[in-house]
Amino acid sequence: MASQRRNKGEKLFLRYLILGAWALFCLAPVLWFLSIGFRPRTEIITPQPIYLPSFSLDAWHMIWRDWPMGHYLRNSLLAIAGSVVIDLVLAVPAAFSLARYRYKGREDIGFYILSTRMMAPAIVAIPIFFLFKTMGLLNTVWALMLIYAAVNLSVVTWIIRSYMLDIPKELEDAARTDGASDLRILWEIIIPAILPGIITAGVIAAIFAINEFLFTLLIASTKDAYTLSVALANFTGGSDGVIYNAIALVAFLAFVPVFLVVAAIQKHLSRGLTMGAVKG
């Protein structure tokens, strides 16, 4: 018994050691990027390596004093959260229709929805710019919400559809036998069953929205509508050159909200990533 407990303890220690080393390997670039944000710019651009860097809050004071970074962060969070809500509200019933109803052209419609992601965004950038200009939505967070939602809607719909295909139809047949409508079946049976998949699709849409730069730069051309991705571009030129420590600090601030969301819902996210993996 003592030897078995010792072997079990050694295996557990080895497991935690490997996981700890892997976590350190994954976090090392993020921590290094953060350390650049709290170093003087002169030490970053020097050709000679500095093994014991000094600590400086110059970049921190710069992004909050000279740049309204809180406003940019607020714009990013509002635009991303709004686009995810729009995508889920539209994608869930669309996916339910594609997964459960049988009608002529259903597979073609599903392919057409997904094919919109095969098109280069630059092709429709100018028409979308003039469309929002005509609607009076340029340089607003509402425009960013709509464009993010439009860009990611096809992917979110297809992902949720694949999760719905894994739900046995017998559950719906039993509910219909009891007199439940399709809307009630969707709300009380399908959505709870694929909730991890919906959360996964929402997180993927949020990540895509954060990484969107072309439409953001085109639509949010004034500081009132800047997001963090556009604000980052302002640290890469001008008379001061590339401000590396400010870029690192703003990039880390953009990373933190996503990290916190993923950490909070990791249980649902890990389950959702395994759902719908076979059917497409």
How is the secondary structure organized here?
Layout: H1 2-37, H2 41-45, H3 58-66, H4 69-100, H5 106-115, H6 121-135, H7 141-164, H8 169-177, H9 182-193, H10 195-211, H11 214-219, H12 228-233, H13 244-264, H14 266-274
Helix pairs in contact: 1-13, 3-13, 4-7, 4-10, 5-7, 7-10, 8-9, 10-13, 10-14
Report on the structure:
- With 280 residues, the chain is mostly helical.
- It folds into 2 domains: 1-38; 67-273, MetI-like fold, CATH 1.10.3720.10.
- The chain has 14 helices and no strands.
- The radius of gyration is 24 Å and the shape is flat.
- It starts with a helix and ends in a 6-residue tail after the last helix.
Outline the biggest β-sheet. Answer: none
Question: CATH class of the largest domain, please?
Answer: Mainly Alpha
Identify the quaternary structure here. Answer: single chain
Terminal Cα separation, in Å?
50 Å
Provide the residue-averaged pLDDT.
82
The number of helical runs is 14
Percent in helix: over 70%
E-strand count? 0
- Which structural class is indicated by helix and strand composition? mainly alpha
What general form does the structure show?
flat
SSE arrangement, N to C: HHHHHHHHHHHHHH
- Under the CATH scheme, the architecture of the largest domain is Orthogonal Bundle
Strand percentage: under 5%
How many structurally independent domains? Answer: 2
Radius of gyration: 24 Å
Under CATH, the topology of the largest domain can be stated as MetI-like fold
| CATH homologous superfamily annotation of the largest domain | MetI-like
